[in-house]
Write a structure and sequence with these properties.
Layout (H helix, E strand, L loop, with lengths): L2 E9 L2 E6 L10 H5 L9 E6 L10 E5 L4 H22 L1 H8 L5 H22 L3 H4 L4 E6 L1
Antiparallel strand pairs: 1-2, 1-4, 2-3, 4-5
Helix pairs in contact: 2-4, 3-4
Length: 144
Amino acid sequence: MSLQGKVTAVEEGFATVEVEPRPECKGCHACTGLLDGEKRSAKKQIRAMTKDFKVNIGDEVVLDLNPGEGTLAALLIFGLPVAGFITGMVLTPWFCQAIGIEINDLGRLISGFGGMAVAFVIVAIAARTKQAEKLSLKVVEIIK
């Protein structure tokens, strides 16, 4: 999914781009998530990497992800919490024995959500790293 927009601010290595999803886009609804659930017609400011491009305020640019990066980001955001939930459920006997209670469904549920919470904390921490910036939108073209 690519987005076209206008550069409104430039700082070292990044540009703030005002984007509006294309009206013909009716497919995956990824732009709804990108635009924080706002209407598709609403404009939104997005911070994008300018890695190989020299952009100026007022330039029209196209933003996109490198192939495979969207899949990797989705796997981290959605897959890791699910894996945490399953891990928590698998470790229920150990948790129940550690606190001295009988294994039951409630214990499995609490343990699963505890594992999911730990996974969300890991995702939140990872989202603030330099590596996570590599998975953000990038300027891929300057429209003349």
